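Consider a typical record:
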Amino acid sequence: MTGDVPVAASRDRDAGGRARNARPRDGLGRPLPRGAVGDAEQVPDDIDLGVDESVALAQRYLDEGHPFHAHEVLEALWKTRHPDERDLWQGLAQVAVGLTHALRGNTTGATTLLRRGVGRIGNYAGDPHDIDVAGVISWAEQLAANPTAVAAAALAPPRLMAAPTS
């Protein structure tokens, strides 16, 4: 209870009654006080893009230093794509949120989520979407071994897709 209003009743809810957080967020996805101005755009809860568009948007967020937002885009894929692809999208989302934790200074959370993500994408058989699974695994393992490297700008964001060969 908060005052006379139960906590559950005071939460943001969508039309279906599912909890939603309409509070603005900072660039690393942390909720700000109601009425504050966030310093990053929010990813809509109902985002529904194709795989190519989602991966491109997630990469843009990673490149701009907003891995929490990349996580939300990838999370939408894991919830909407074929179950055979769940480990790929969920693992990539976990890698993105592991990077978020590293940037927030939470090295334990970063290491845990990076390793969990690597485990999921490492078990993924096949990739019809040209995701650079081996490259993401290598990047995530490097960051998990030294989660402070990213805060020191010693590690660029991961590349979800392999660079085109010329």
User: Anything to note?
Assistant: The radius of gyration is 17 Å. Residues 40 and 68 are 10 Å apart (CA to CA). The chain has two domains: 1-42, 51-145.
